[in-house]
Amino acid sequence: MKISLWNSRTGRKETFTPLQPERVRMYVCGPTVYDRAHIGNARPVVVFDLLFSLLRHQYGQQQVVYVRNITDIDDKINARALELNNSLGASLLDTIRSITDETIDWFHEDMAALGVLPPTHEPRATDYVREMVDMIGELLARRHAYVREGHVLFDTRSYPEYGSLARRSPRDMRAGARVEVAPYKTSELDFVLWKPSDDTLPGWESPWGRGRPGWHIECSAMSSRLLGTSFDIHGGGSDLLFPHHENEAAQSACAHPEAEFARLWMHNGMIRVNGQKMSKSLENFLTVRQLLEQGIAGETIRLVLLGTHYRQQLDWTDRRVEEARSILGEWRHITAGIDESDRNCHREVLEQLADDLNTPGAISVLHRLAADGSAAELKASAVFMGLLGDDLSDQLRKSVMEVMRLRDQARNQRNFDLSDRIRNQLGDVGIIVRDSKAGSRYHFQPVGARDAQMIAIDTTLGELTRMAKVGMQH
Ligand SMILES: [Zn+2]
Q1: How far apart are the C-alpha atoms of 410 and 85, rounded to whole Å?
Q2: How far is the CA of 245 from the centre of ligand 1 (A)?
Q3: I want to staple 30 with a disulfide (CB 3.0 to 4.6 A). Which of 68, 183, 289, 472 is the partner?
Q4: CATH says 319-384 is which class?
Q5: Ligand 1 centroid vs 163 CA: distance in angstroms?
Q6: How far from 286 is each of 3, 49, 103, CA to CA, in Å?
Q7: What is the CA(421)–ligand 1 centre distance, in A?
Q8: β-strands 271-273, 276-277: how paired?
């Protein structure tokens, strides 16, 4: 099957050909962790989760490496910690750690509720500061950066292609960037690679004094460390195209001139709520948690997010939520008692997805399968798209996803004893794991009294997590 994807860099739909078919590599910018994820944060996570499934189906489960980072060092996090500290009196660094840890936990729980699979790697920026410092050193050595007043800045004038990814002229960039005016910048488009930290702020030793990295360098350093200096797909929201992705591309090209960095750039459109931009002042910021607490199921949110093509702007309305809810109710009714495990996703659904992730097209095929009464195919195809999954609690689902991720790792390390034991023990409590070319999926099978089964699942997951972590060290 041919996969075509729209490349923002060229402004064309292109046939996707991985640099190495046995190792397809994708990087997507992840959350900055200081607050609950809103639906605008959830959209790229869901979109690229579906692309991850499609790529795994096409190239094989072990062959796709998906990195989605966590930005856990950022001035917004520091500001939030300062706000909290005024009332708590704890050390700022401790508060930052507890904010980021808690927010990462929330993020995992909320995304699991939306049926999102964990990525292959989820690096935290603070674990890669060494790589960032090295890369900044490389940029200085190659004269693409300069040091001024304790800051290291990228010299945009040293790179004539600056602006080519976003396809903007220097004038457009100045108008669009809302560039902060700082006396230490040679050009107003130059951006910070490293900035000084005083003793109260998180900081690392560097050749330029104690400080912390700028945001853009994080993604360049983590992607090159985990995926190499050339990889296949770089994704994120269209709001990141400029300046974030432009800056990532510029830094990476200048630090590794022999490499291509990302070959294909994908950007999802923004979300509006009832026709309006989401904003704090309009009080229309919808977090995933709020929606779940209003009783809107995770899969309903997912279906609304997939109901509009990813490149289009999506308008979130109550009517769309109601529609999605009733569609899923109908599909659940049709597929009740159906075991999809011997079926694969319907060919036409895959073809729609392979056409630049045409999710509205794929959903119309699901409607047709429903109308034709093809229950097993409907179920298998919906499950492929992350719909009609289990009805576990968000907490339990998150733990199941984590155990599934550990099992994937065990399989990657060819530790089949461990992966089989995990599969068997999950099966004993009604979590049926099935491995296929598209990856491992599970489905939930009710066994006996629900409460007793939930307790058994919870206990088993705890044991398996411990067992897997120990088993993997050997
Ligand atoms: Zn990024």
Answers
A1: 41
A2: 6
A3: 68
A4: mainly alpha
A5: 16
A6: 33, 21, 16
A7: 37
A8: antiparallel
Task: From 113, 9, 123, select the one nearest 66 (Cα to Cα).
Answer: 123
Distance of CA 104 to the CA centre of its chain: 12
Provide φ and ψ at 431, rounded to 5°.
-105, 100
pLDDT per residue as tens, the chain (474 positions):
999 999 999 999 999 999 999 999 999 999 999 999 999 999 999 999 999 999 999 999 889 999 999 999 999 999 999 888 766 667 888 899 999 999 999 999 899 889 998 899 999 999 999 999 999 999 999 999 999 999 999 999 999 999 999 998 888 887 765 556 677 888 889 999 999 999 889 999 999 999 999 999 999 999 999 999 999 999 999 999 999 999 999 999 999 999 999 999 999 999 999 999 988 778 888 999 999 888 899 999 999 999 999 999 999 999 999 999 999 999 999 998 787 666 889 999 999 999 999 999 999 999 999 999 999 999 999 999 999 987 787 778 888 888 998 998 898 889 999 999 999 999 999 898 888 766 787 878 878 888 888 999 999 999 999 998 888 776
Determine the distance separating the centroid of ligand 1 and the alpha carbon of 72, expressed in angstroms.
12
How many A from CA of 246 to the centre of ligand 1? 10
CA of 369 relative to ligand 1 center, distance in Å: 39
Q: Which residues of 230-240 are buried (b: 16+ CB within 10 A; e: fewer)?
A: bbbbbbbbbeb
For 36, the token pair is 């609950």
Give distance in angstroms: CA of 372 to centre of ligand 1.
44
- The domains of the chain are located at 19-268, 319-384, 394-473
The tokens for 73 are 């060092």
Match domain 19-268 to its CATH number in 3.40.50.720, 3.40.50.2300, 2.40.30.30, 3.40.50.620: 3.40.50.620
Query: Considering the entire predicted model, what is its pTM?
Result: 0.88
